[in-house]
Design a protein that fits this description.
Layout lengths: L4 H4 L7 H19 L14 H7 L4 H7 L15
Length: 81
């Protein structure tokens, strides 16, 4: 499980190196895990949408549609008791 990536990739908007590293985590790693036969490995990545947009520059909507069922979204009302 990966969480807190915004603390690690603080220059995601301008750093090609950070964008490449995050793309490897969000795109390449799940793809490689899926190639393992009878794998019981899973990767869970909590990533802000703005970070995703800096990372996936082609077919962003396709990527979002693939994982839409797992989208965590909230608004002001979500935090009211």
């Amino acid at each position: 499980m990966f969480d807190g990536l915004e603390d690690i990739f603080t220059e995601i908007a301008s750093s090609n190196q950070q964008q490449t590293a995050l793309k490897s985590l969000t795109d390449d790693l799940p793809e490689k895990l899926s190639e393992i036969r009878q794998s019981n490995l899973v990767v869970i990545i909590f990533l802000r949408r703005d970070f995703l947009r800096y990372t996936i520059t082609q077919n962003l909507s396709q990527f979002e549609n693939l994982y839409r069922a797992y989208d965590l979204s909230w608004n002001q009302d979500s935090f009211r008791s």
